[in-house]
Amino acid sequence: MVNITLAIIKPDAMAARHQGKILDRILQGGFNVRGSRIIRMSKQQAEGFYEVHRGKPFFEELTAFMSSGPTMPLVLEKDNAVADFRDLIGVTNPADAAEGTIRKDFAASLGENAVHGSDSDENAEKEVAFFFARADILGVF
Ligand code: ADP
Ligand code: MG
């Protein structure tokens, strides 16, 4: 799974109609989209996805936000996918994100920061499995 990462275009970016521009950045960045969905998570699903953050002060805000509207989970394939996608999106707080990153250009705040990207190969595998059946991922398995 080292060439796979899980991205999510978050509700703020979907509501702002930025999903096309973000997908263009992803494609121009050399990633292949191997799976895609458009879903609105339930609060419970969002809590499950972000289980690692349960108990943190922003957990309630984060899971309410992530279940507030449509999202696009994406399976992305590229050499060094996890690290390269984190580079493409920039750091968590858009105020600190590097020029030309997705979060710098499309995110409004620390909480509503346009995109998710897995932080390790192990978590990428778990996060892909959270949203996608194997049969719905093109050419990876
Ligand atoms: P990343 O998404 O960059 O991996 P984290 O895993 O630390 O960042 O946090 C998950 C998500 O939780 C962030 O993308 C952001 O939407 C939200 N978040 C993180 N820290 C805060 C915070 N201090 N206040 C509000 N929301 C936060
Ligand atoms: Mg994270």
Secondary-structure blueprint:
Layout: E1 4-9, H1 11-15, H2 19-28, E2 32-36, H3 43-49, H4 59-66, E3 72-77, H5 81-89, H6 102-106, E4 115-117, H7 121-131
Antiparallel strand pairs: 1-3, 1-4, 2-3
This protein binds adenosine-5'-diphosphate and magnesium ion (MG).
Inertia-based shape: globular
What structural category arises from helix and sheet content? Answer: alpha+beta
* CATH H-level superfamily title: Nucleoside diphosphate kinase-like domain
Overall mean pLDDT stands at: 96
Q: In the CATH classification, which architecture applies? A: 2-Layer Sandwich
What amount of the residues lies in strands?
5-15%
Unreliable sequence segments: none
CA radius of gyration: 14 Å
Please work out how many helical segments DSSP would assign: 7
Strand order of the largest sheet: 2-3-1-4
Helix content: 25-40%
CATH fold node name: Alpha-Beta Plaits
Overall structural domain count: 1
In this entry the ligands are: adenosine-5'-diphosphate, magnesium ion
Q: Can you identify the CATH class?
A: Alpha Beta
Write down how many β-strands occur, each being a DSSP E stretch of 2 or more residues. 4
Listing every helix as H and every strand as E from the N terminus to the C terminus, the arrangement reads: EHHEHHEHHEH
Main β-sheet description: 4 strands, antiparallel
Distance between the termini: 9 Å
